[in-house]
Structure formats: structure tokens, C-alpha cells
Design brief:
The complex is a heterodimer.
Chain A lengths: L2 H6 L1 H13 L15 H5 L3 H14 L6 E3 L2 H10 L7 H13 E3 H8 L8 E8 L3 H7 L3 H7 L3 E5 L15 H4 L1 H18 L3 E4 L2 H13 L5 E4 H5 L16
Parallel strand pairs in A: 1-2, 3-4, 3-5, 5-6
Helix pairs in contact in A: 5-6, 5-8, 7-9, 11-12
Chain B lengths: L7 H9 L2 H24 L3 H17 L1 H14 L3 E5 L2 H14 L4 E4 L3 H5 L2 H7 L3 E4 L2 H8 L16 H12 L11 H18 L2 E4 L3 E3 L4 E6 L3 H7 L3 E7 L3 E2 L2 H15 L7 E5 L13 E7 L22 H4 L2 H6 L10 H12 L1 H4 L11 H5 L6 H14 L5 H14 L2 H18 L5 E2 L6 H4 L4 E2 L7 H9 L1
Helix pairs in contact in B: 3-12, 9-10, 15-18
Classes of the chains: A alpha/beta, B alpha/beta.
């Protein structure tokens, strides 16, 4: 479970669990997992990253697959962990974890072969391709394929769905003005689609875009793609108060 | 060139509020990347060519001493001279002396980023020699006393109207008193003004895209033909290039050329591809009498054999900046030195020091679009991360970041304590944000809430708390 989902949007976690269970998986959430270490990794603190990665490797020992509802956390485990270790034993364990780690959408479609979901969502949605999922893990068609099976849902693509939203982890607070310019362009691109809902596969990006859209007074609702696919699209959207759809 | 990389944040602010710049950047963002995409799609073997291009450069870098010496042997045998410049200062001195030996008053310069790197124009001016930029973009920014903002499109930050004003101001004394409004007219006027300068120049100076060891040739691509005039008309031709430009063979050059233009501008090849192989031979109709190649190190050889070596594969196509959303937001000048964008963010700390340029590798979301289009597959985000690691090791990371990180890592390594604290934070944020669902301001989160609302978590507790509740 990613730190952001745990703290800010548990519904994404439950949606992921539901999708996995419906696809026949037995899902456990190891209680001693914390963060995957990205904040330290991207700030240049390799020693801390290594310590946290070792903890994550321990926590997920013995599972057939480790699935995260996030491309950036999934990519951290599957692409960056092995490079952290020089010690051959730890490196081998990291490589083993990497080979079992997946982003949710690609696990459902590429590994489990899921082709459709039983969900309804009456609305016009647009989908943002989060950077790590797209460029590190090749997540592009998988969410779209599943969304195509959602009843009532119409997808309107943005002009540039693959351009970064300006979140970038600590980037958005280290360089707030640049980040703001980037997310401002993104929100214009979203608005131009006429969609009433924005979906993506990473909560960091979603919080960034939701925060900008709401500051601008936009009525576009923002949700994680897993929520819609799991038939949980009737809950309050990100940044909306309970009781409001 | 004097660096302002240290003032990156201020530079970025100025760029974001400059309407002319934002106007120019809006056009750049769609133009280059769309043309590159189409060019790559038209060539089925493009991805395979990128692999080959990467391998060629890796091989050249692994055997750099051999190929550089081979290149020198070939140039010498052709009657040219190779000069080795360990530092920028050495390169300036060598070129200054060569120009003086010709009694030069003017030097016709074809676009060269290495010349920018060593601040050659300022040096020549101090010697009383006038450098004439002959690339249209370089000519425009020379008139305006600005540095380039892009490595292949140096004046891309300017609008047509700004260029029109600049030409009127500077060409008035030459008799051009009409303010032009059409692009073609602006080009024609520049062409007319520059033509006599080519004829008058005593020395022509060009950069090089590649130095071919096999033949001793320097290879240069342009779209304006200005390099050809710079290297055929004057009596002396000086090529200025850095050490990593050397490649083994003409075959290799053919592979690199195929990815270079497509990545840069989406062209299948640039309009002019010129090979210079020594001075004029007896019986040649044109060409320089004197041919010199100045090869610059300036800190590059220190990168060989390190985790940073991949940066030396760069063939200066500019695709990384054309696709970078940060560059697209702030343009090239904000980076504060010669090389902007993602490649600038890895090269600049090496060339002028990470103390000065430490912001550059940090100002990236690691979106990875640069790496995905790089014709020689430089892992630019990884290299930027390596710089952040060096900054962290050397305690150059800002104190607030270090302290926040230390606190966070203390918690992240104590899962039970972490769980209790996140549970508390979750409940507080949910409670106070319940009415609106989000925050317009939040203590310690000013960087976020200055421009964005902050979503409040819904009531009910963290995922882990709820999960425990459900499964027990």
C-alpha cells in the first residue's frame, strides 16, 4: 500500500483489493510495510534508501506478487531496488522482489489477463498517463482497455496525456512556481476535453491535479482509475467533502 | 560566459512572468516534439538505430585516447594541425594566437556551443578581433547581447516581433530603415548583411558534430549553409570541438546522422552536411590555406570511467529540452549557463561545479521524457539523481530538505511509530477538512497550497487502520 493512499485516500487501496480478489487473488497487506523509499532516493540519500528498501524486501518476503496501485512505487520496487545494493545477497533479494513487483493495471491486464470489469460509471472521463507507470512500466493501454468495459463511461483523450503534471514528489514543493506552470497547462488540457472526471493511476499526480483544478474553481472530479474500475466511483471524489458526489 | 545557475529559482520566476518568452515556448513545445515523433514513425528501424548510435558512442568513449590520437595523425598527414586544450582558457589562448597570426580583424563564426562554453567571443573582442556570428539565430542574439537559450535554436526564446525590432535598431545604420513583418524578409535582410562579412573575414571558425578518426575529417550539419561559407572563404579555418566528438569511422557517422536530425528537428537530414578534411590541396578550387583543429577537454576526461560517463554520449540534438516540461515552462536562460534542459542539468555541474549548478539536477520531476527520446539513450534522470547523491554526500542539499528527510527517514524505519503518527495525522486532516473536503492553506505546506488546494482524507482512518478493522 503506498504511503499516500494509506494516509489520504484509503478507498484506492480497497478498490485495488476488490479488483484483485475478483480476479481470483488472495490479498494480504503486510502490516510492517512503510514507504518504498522514493523521497530519500530522489533526494540523493542512498544510505537511507537502502535501509528502507531492505525493510520493504523483508516485509514482502514469500508473496507470489507484490502489487501497488501506483506506477511510481511499483517502478521503484521493480526497476530501482536492484541497483541500490552492492552486497550480492541483498542484491539477489532485491532482484527477486523486483521480478515479483507490479503496478496494479499492468498486473491485472498483462499478468492476470483481465479484459473487463463489472462496473458502471455515468460520465465522460479523461485519463492522465502518470510518468513512471508510462515510461518505466509501459502502462498505457491496460487502464484504457479496462475502462472501455465500464458501462456508461465515455473516454475523451487529452491533447497531451503523456506530459508530466508537475507533481514529481518533492519537486512540487521545492520548485512550486515551475510545478504550478506545469499543472496549469495540464488543467487547461483537461478542461479542453470537456470531461467531467479525471482519472489516473497515481495518487501523487491526482492530488496535484485535483488541487489545481479545485483552486481554479473547476467542477472536474478527480479519482484513481481503480476506484472507477472497482465500481466505487460513487464515493466523494478527491478533495470533495463527504456526501457530495 | 558568467553563470547565473545559482540564481535558478529567480531566473525561473522571471521566465514564468515574461509574456514574450511564454509565447515563444508555447510554439516550441508542440512543434519540435510532433515533428520528431513523425520522423521516428516514418523510419521503422529508428529504435534499432538508437541502439547502434548508443553503442558507437560507448565504443568511442571506451577507446577515446586511441581515436583521438588516430584523428590527430590523420589531420597532421593532411597538412592540418591539432591543438590540445585541457581547459577553456587554453582553448581561448590557442584560438586567439591563431587569429593574431593571420592579423585577423574579423572571424566568421558558425554556430558552436563549445565556443559559448569557453566564452570565445568575449576573448576575441578583448583582443580587438570582431567575431561575426553567421547562424541566423546566433546572429540575432549576438546583436541583442544575449546567450543562446537552446543548443540548436539559440534564439527560440524570441518572438518574430522582437527580432524585427532588433534588426531595425541594428541595421538602420546600414540603410535598412523599414521595420519588417514577414519572416522571409527578415531572413533576406540578415543574409544580405552577413554576405559581405563572410567575404571580409580573415578566419572562419566552426564547431563540429563529429570528428571522424578514420579520415581526419570534421563533420558539421547546418540548415543555413553558413558553415560552408565560414570554412571555405577565409584563409584560415579553425575547428573547435570537445574530446567526446570523436568517432571511429564514416560508417559510424552515417548512423549518428540518421538519428541526429530526426531527433533534433524531425528532418530526415539537415540541409547541409559538410566534411572538412584538411586544408586546400594543390588544384583545389577553394578551401582554407590553413586548417587547425582545437580539441577541448574542460573537465570531460574526469567523467570517463565513472557512473557519469554516459553524459559524454550526447550528440547535441536538443531533443531532451524539446520534450522537457520544465524547459518548456521556463526556457533555456533560466538554467543560467551554456547548456540548458536535461542535458544541461547533468553537464553543467560537471563543467562549472555542482556548488554553482546544484539546482539544475534537482529541478526535474524525473518524468523520463528526455530519456525516452534521447537518440543515444542517455539515462538523464539517473544521471541527475547521481548529482543529487553527490550533493547529499557533500552536504550541499538545502538544510530544510535534509532535516525533513532525516525526520521522515527516522519514522519510515520505525513502522509502528510511523503507523501511530500517520493515524493521528489522518484523523486531524480528515476532521478539520471535513466541511470542504480540502484545504486552501495548511501549515508547513505553503509550497503546495500557494497554488493548489490540498485534498483532505475522508473520515474513517488510514488504510491500514481500516484494513485491520475489517480483517480482525
Amino acid at each position: 500500500m503506498t504511503c499516500l493512499v494509506d494516509l489520504f485516500r484509503p478507498a484506492i487501496g480497497f478498490a485495488a483489493v476488490k479488483l484483485l480478489e475478483e480476479a481470483g487473488c488472495t490479498v494480504e497487506v503486510p502490516p510492517l510495510q512503510v514507504c518504498c523509499g522514493q523521497p530519500a532516493y530522489n533526494s540523493g540519500d542512498r544510505a537511507t534508501t537502502r535501509a528502507i528498501a531492505a525493510q520493504v524486501i523483508d516485509a514482502f518476503e514469500g508473496y507470489d506478487a507484490v502489487v501497488a496501485p501506483s506506477g511510481s512505487c511499483g517502478g521503484m520496487l521493480s526497476h530501482h531496488y536492484p541497483g541500490l545494493f552492492d552486497d550480492p545477497v541483498q542484491k539477489a533479494r532485491a532482484e527477486n522482489l523486483a521480478s515479483r513487483s507490479y503496478e496494479l493495471m499492468s498486473f491485472l491486464v498483462d499478468v492476470l489477463g483481465v479484459t473487463k470489469v463489472a462496473a458502471q460509471y455515468d460520465g465522460r472521463v479523461t485519463y492522465h498517463d502518470s510518468c513512471s507507470g508510462l515510461r518505466e512500466l509501459g502502462v498505457k493501454q491496460q487502464p484504457r482497455r479496462l475502462l472501455a468495459s465500464v458501462g456508461g463511461l465515455k473516454l475523451s483523450e487529452m491533447e497531451s496525456p503523456e506530459v508530466c503534471c508537475g507533481f514529481g514528489g518533492t519537486f512540487c514543493v521545492k520548485y512550486p512556481e515551475i510545478s504550478n506552470a506545469m499543472v496549469g497547462e495540464k488543467s487547461a488540457d483537461i478542461a479542453a476535453t470537456g470531461a467531467d472526471t479525471l482519472l489516473a493511476g497515481d495518487l501523487g499526480c491526482l492530488m496535484n491535479m485535483a488541487g489545481k483544478l479545485q483552486r481554479e474553481g473547476s467542477a472536474v472530479r478527480v479519482r484513481h482509475v481503480a476506484e472507477v474500475l472497482a465500481g466505487m466511483g460513487d464515493q466523494a471524489a478527491i478533495g470533495e467533502p463527504e456526501g457530495k458526489r | 560566459m558568467q553563470s547565473t545557475a545559482r540564481d535558478f529559482k529567480d531566473n525561473a520566476h522571471a521566465a514564468l512572468v515574461d509574456p514574450n518568452l511564454q509565447d515563444s515556448l508555447a510554439k516550441l513545445k508542440v512543434g519540435f516534439s510532433e515533428r520528431r515523433r513523425q520522423a521516428a514513425e516514418r523510419l521503422p528501424e529508428f529504435e534499432a538505430l538508437r541502439d547502434r548510435a548508443r553503442d558507437i558512442k560507448n565504443h568511442a568513449l571506451a577507446n577515446l585516447d586511441f581515436y583521438l590520437e588516430e584523428f590527430e595523425r590523420k589531420v597532421t598527414a593532411l597538412g592540418g594541425h591539432v591543438h590540445w586544450a585541457p581547459s577553456a582558457e587554453d582553448a581561448r589562448r590557442i584560438i586567439g594566437e591563431l587569429c593574431r597570426s593571420m592579423g585577423a580583424r574579423t572571424v566568421a563564426k558558425s554556430k558552436s556551443m563549445v565556443a559559448e562554453e569557453i566564452a570565445l567571443n568575449e576573448h576575441l573582442e578583448a583582443l580587438g578581433i570582431a567575431p561575426i556570428e553567421t547562424d541566423l539565430g546566433e546572429y540575432i542574439i549576438q546583436l541583442r547581447h544575449e546567450p543562446p537559450s537552446h543548443i540548436i535554436a539559440p534564439a527560440v526564446h524570441l518572438t518574430k516581433d522582437q527580432v524585427a525590432d532588433t534588426f531595425l535598431e541594428h541595421h538602420r545604420k546600414l540603410g535598412f530603415t523599414r521595420r519588417l513583418t514577414e519572416r522571409n524578409d527578415l531572413v533576406a535582410e540578415a543574409r544580405y548583411v552577413l554576405r559581405q562579412k563572410f567575404l571580409d573575414a580573415d578566419v572562419g571558425l566552426t564547431g563540429a558534430n563529429f570528428l571522424v578518426a578514420e579520415t581526419g575529417s570534421s563533420m558539421l550539419v547546418t540548415n543555413e549553409g553558413n558553415a560552408d561559407l565560414s570554412n571555405t572563404l577565409p584563409r584560415m579555418h579553425i575547428v573547435l570541438a570537445s574530446i567526446e566528438k570523436v568517432i571511429p569511422t564514416l560508417e559510424d557517422a552515417a548512423v549518428l546522422l540518421r538519428v541526429l536530425a530526426r531527433s533534433a528537428t524531425g528532418q530526415e537530414s539537415s540541409a547541409y552536411t559538410t566534411l572538412n578534411t584538411g586544408p586546400r590541396r594543390p588544384g583545389d578550387l577553394d578551401g582554407p590555406e590553413h586548417y587547425h583543429v582545437v580539441i577541448l577537454d574542460n573537465g570531460r576526461s574526469a567523467v570517463l570511467g565513472t557512473e557519469m560517463q554516459d553524459m559524454l554520449r550526447c550528440i547535441r540534438c536538443g531533443a531532451c529540452m524539446n520534450h522537457c516540461p520544465v524547459y518548456g515552462a521556463i526556457g533555456g536562460h533560466a538554467y543560467g549557463w551554456v547548456y540548458p534542459g536535461p542535458i544541461g542539468a547533468v553537464l553543467t555541474p560537471q563543467l562549472i561545479g555542482v556548488e554553482e549548478a546544484g539546482n539544475l539536477p534537482n529541478a526535474s520531476t524525473f518524468c523520463g521524457r528526455c530519456e525516452s527520446v534521447c537518440p543515444v539513450r542517455i539515462p538523464l534522470p539517473s544521471l541527475m539523481r547521481h548529482w543529487r547523491e553527490r550533493e547529499f554526500e557533500r552536504h550541499l542539499t538545502p538544510r530544510a530538505v535534509r532535516q525533513g528527510l532525516a525526520l521522515w527517514s527516522f519514522l519510515a524505519r520505525r513502522p509502528r511509530l510511523y503507523r501511530r503518527l500517520t493515524g493521528l495525522a489522518n484523523r486531524m486532516l480528515a476532521l478539520f477538512g471535513r466541511a470542504q473536503g480540502r484545504y486552501r492553506t495548511l501549515p508547513l505546506a505553503g509550497g503546495w497550497t500557494r497554488f493548489r488546494d490540498f485534498p483532505a482524507p475522508p473520515p474513517g482512518g488510514t488504510f491500514h487502520a481500516q484494513w485491520r478493522g475489517r480483517r480482525s
